[in-house]
Amino acid sequence: MEPILNIENLTKTYGAVPNQTKALNGITFQVMPGEFLGIMGSSGSGKTTLLNCIAAVVKPAGGSIVMEDRNLRSLDGRALAEYRGKTVGYLFQNFELLDNLTGRENILLPASLHKVTEKTGSLRLKQLAEYLEITDVLDKFPGQMSGGQRQRVAAARAMILHPKLILADEPTGALDSKNAKNLMEKLSSLNQEEQATILMATHDSGAASFCKRILFIQDGVIFHEIRRGDESRQDFYQRILKVMAQLGGGRCNVL
């Protein structure tokens, strides 16, 4: 099986010499189709920068990002917009929903921008709304929803165009433990039942325990990797905690 995403020697710096900060310092890894991969590290470790580079929101200083044999450096104009809108779906920590649009309108916005037919968009919306249990909030505005409902609406928006890769940046960061567990269970089911490929950045050990593989990043470098075998999620969670202890932290919610 060929990887869906191939990252080679990725680097990104901020600031000017002599006060430069290396957010990414030679990151290399692959993501396989249908994988649920976690990127763990403390705040400032480079997780969000990495996801933003993959989403083509931030331009790396060096290295390569290849998605299904397409190097992001070769994309511009319409091809880049197509990549950002359809190839990857982005799930943000703070939802990033438009307050003046209903849940339905927020979810269908990418479909409208990329000229998906109303029938196709509506069918996909119905499927996702039922699965994510948000049918009853589709005609509400974000301000009328709970945090968990807003994040599940955001998840539906990220999934509406059947992206090749879902990028989730601290998706449970603004949720309480109950809503965080509910969201992670939904993402895990999407991964298993729809074979959705998910790359999630988090410092939450409980959320990470839903992943199949975890890469640990510190100071812009991947220093460790663990995979979940036949063990229970609770046992995998304990293994994650041991690695995070080496980083000096990591939230310890038992989801």
Give a structural overview.
By secondary structure, the chain is α/β, with parallel strands linked by helices. The protein has 8 helices and 10 strands. The protein has a 6-stranded mixed beta sheet with strand order 6-7-8-3-9-10, with helices on both faces. Strands 2-1-4-5 form a 4-stranded antiparallel beta sheet, with helices on one face. Helix 3 runs parallel beside helix 5 and helix 4 packs across helix 5 (147-159). It starts with a strand and ends in an 8-residue tail after the last helix. Keywords: ATP-binding, Nucleotide-binding, Transport. It comes from Candidatus Mediterraneibacter stercorigallinarum.
**Unreliable spans:** 250-255
Q: Could you give the distance between the termini?
A: 32 Å
Treating each run of at least 4 consecutive H or I residues as one helix, how many helices? Answer: 8
Radius of gyration, CA atoms, in whole angstroms: 18 Å
Shape: globular
Q: Major sheet: order of its strands?
A: 6-7-8-3-9-10
Number of strands: 10
Q: What can be said about the biggest beta sheet?
A: 6 strands, mixed
The overall pLDDT average reads 90
| Order of H and E elements | EEEHEEHEHHHEHEHEEH
Structural class call reads alpha/beta
Q: Secondary structure elements and their pairing?
A:
Layout: E1 5-14, E2 21-31, E3 36-40, H1 47-54, E4 62-67, E5 70-71, H2 77-87, E6 88-91, H3 103-113, H4 118-132, H5 147-159, E7 165-169, H6 177-193, E8 198-202, H7 205-208, E9 213-218, E10 221-227, H8 233-247
Parallel strand pairs: 3-8, 3-9, 6-7, 7-8
Antiparallel strand pairs: 1-2, 1-4, 4-5, 9-10
Helix pairs in contact: 3-4, 3-5, 4-5, 5-6
